Amino acid sequence: MAGTGVFAEIIEGEVYKYYADGEWKLSSSGKSVSIVNPTTRKTQYKVQACTQEEVNKVMETAKVAQKSWAKTPLWKRAELLHKAAAILKEHKAPIAEALVKEIAKPAKDAVTEVVRSGDLISYCAEEGVRLLGQGAFLVSDSFPGNERTKYCLTSKIPLGVVLAIPPFNYPVNLAVSKIGPALIAGNSLVLKPPTQGAVACLHMVHCFQLAGFPKGLISCITGKGSEIGDFLTMHPGVNCISFTGGDTGIAISKKAGMIPLQMELGGKDACIVLEDADLDLVAANIIKGGFSYSGQRCTAVKVILVIESVADSLVEKVKAKVAKLTVGPPEDDCDITPVVSESSANFIEGLVMDAKQKGATFCQEYKREGNLIWPLLLDHVRPDMRIAWEEPFGPVLPVIRIGSVEEGIHHCNASNFGLQGCVFTKDINKAMLISDAMETGTVQINSAPARGPDHFPFQGIKDSGIGSQGITNSINMMTKVKSTVINLPTPSYTMG
């Protein structure tokens, strides 16, 4: 169970501690933040409400710890990461349990997230040793007008203190996707977990402690965003921010100083379906892409743009599959589980009611109990409906019928988002032309949008983000290039 066994030291009474300077601590505020179980809608866990002064202390220790860590050999950093990965996988059960209770993630998916996170850490260790073990050597006479009097040696060096802010929907996986690259690159790491998902993150951080990482190198600070959010993101001790979430990231990017930013801020991923597409394949991918984890994924299919001539057939196939989805509590491994909060459920309902008022066709009856919303396919959606543009982050999927591929591309590109998209066709030439025309960070051909495998580049354009993720890109982003130039008194040419 969560908070027991090797994890007993991270909780006192019914309140989980925060992690700083190699110790599990109670906040001097004497206050806690409640975490509501989306299924029961009752308080499940409590975490520390840390103060700004505690943030200051965490930043000070992180800065000191980073200087020592930067002197740690790459092989040693990798060794500790491999150890943390193994410990994380060994203790997947209590971490998965926390995911089920905090964010209503289906039990099997919760275990999968923890195992995937361990694999990500191990891959990161291997990739970091290879990537950071190489530099570059340049000579001056390759540029016109120069003799060979200068040798330039370049290497990648750490940025310093990295602030990592993962979202509620994959709190463990999207935390380690920031922690692993930061640590292998020689940085220290301050983690601010989401409120929903904080307990799973605290358990995950304890696995890094058990692996033997130095004191102060990793910190996990919990609390209300309204009290410490801006203080963290604007803190002068932060040298890099990696954030995954919603439009809060836009506000962070405007307030952060001259530091590197890595941001993934959601999407309205379009699924363009051509008349020659394999409709059974399309329907299966719409179910997987649109309804897994109740649609609470940045890379979920958010709008179907289907050529009119095949729309009726596709809608019928999707309706048949929606009818087979199981709905209920995450403990029962249901396909559709409660969305993360009442406010999320209310927002989704607002989009549904707007579509109803404006004449969308409901392929199923709209049904809601508390935070649990039954899967809903909306046909004949028009561009004047909110659901055509806004990201529901729930099990509601709009179908827009289009007269041409160009119409579909236009709708996709008119969005303020640009994370991913997908196109279904048997004509690879058409697929490539459409992919090039879609203004998104990634286009999937004949498959639903997805983040992963975790070493693939993952990025958005427009309001969907800044920079690129994926293990290799994250390591590069969390380093900077340093050059050392050797100046020779006279030109020197090998074998000259």
Summary?
With 496 residues, the chain is of the alpha/beta class. The chain is 38% helix and 22% strand.
Fold and architecture overview:
Its main location: cytoplasm. The protein is an alpha/beta fold and 496 residues long. Helices cover 38% and strands 22% of the residues. It has 14 helices and 26 strands. Strands 16-19-20-15-14-21-22 form a seven-stranded mixed sheet, with helices on both faces. A six-stranded mixed sheet has the order 11-10-9-12-13-24, sandwiched between helices. The chain has a four-stranded mixed sheet with strand order 1-2-6-5, with helices on one face. The longest helix has 26 residues. The N and C termini lie far apart (71 Å). The mean pLDDT is 97.
Q: Strand sequence of the main sheet, in spatial order? A: 16-19-20-15-14-21-22
Q: What's the alpha carbon Rg, rounded to whole Å?
A: 24 Å
**Distance between the amino and carboxyl termini:** 71 Å
Contiguous helical run count:
14
Mean of residue pLDDT values: 97
Number of strands: 26
Q: Residue share in helices?
A: 25-40%
Dominant shape: globular
Low-confidence stretches: none
Structural class call reads alpha/beta
Strand content: 15-25%
* Largest sheet data: 7 strands, mixed
Family: Belongs to the aldehyde dehydrogenase family.
Keywords: Cytoplasm, NADP, Oxidoreductase
Pfam family, one: Aldedh
Catalytic activity: D-glyceraldehyde 3-phosphate + NADP(+) + H2O = (2R)-3-phosphoglycerate + NADPH + 2 H(+)
